[in-house]
Amino acid sequence: MPSQREADEARIRQQIDKIVEGLRGKDLEGLKQLYTTGVVSFDVEPPLQHVGVDAKLKNWANVFAVFETVAYEIRELTLTVGEDVAFGHAFGRLSGTLNDGRATNGMWVRVTYCFEKIGGTWLIAHDQVSVPLDVRSGKGMVDLQP
Predict the structure, then answer these.
(1) Mean pLDDT over residues 11-26, rounded?
(2) CATH code for the domain in which residue 66 is found
């Protein structure tokens, strides 16, 4: 029988799978169920932070407005799970077909998730997405692979 920590980790991994499914299905309502109402997101798009689930969903709506079809992939997800908080990190890649019909392989980003267990459900309370920076040029390095 799995320990409570193992069971919680499995539930968190299911939540991450739901993010992937929600993005592929362009399902804002489904995605909304995965975040706390006060989620703070440090996303790749300005401004420096997006506060609240509506702000987070607006970022996803912007993505859905550009993509006809969305693909999303997570690699190397590592989780640390406590009693009612957990954090994890992974590499993520958003790709697909743009509205003009062009296919894009997207870019790999670094993703950090912070979860809070609320009413028995693990929800994302904070996430951060970033790309490495080439300090000399000041440009993001978007062609790296995990």
Answers:
(1) 97
(2) 3.10.450.50
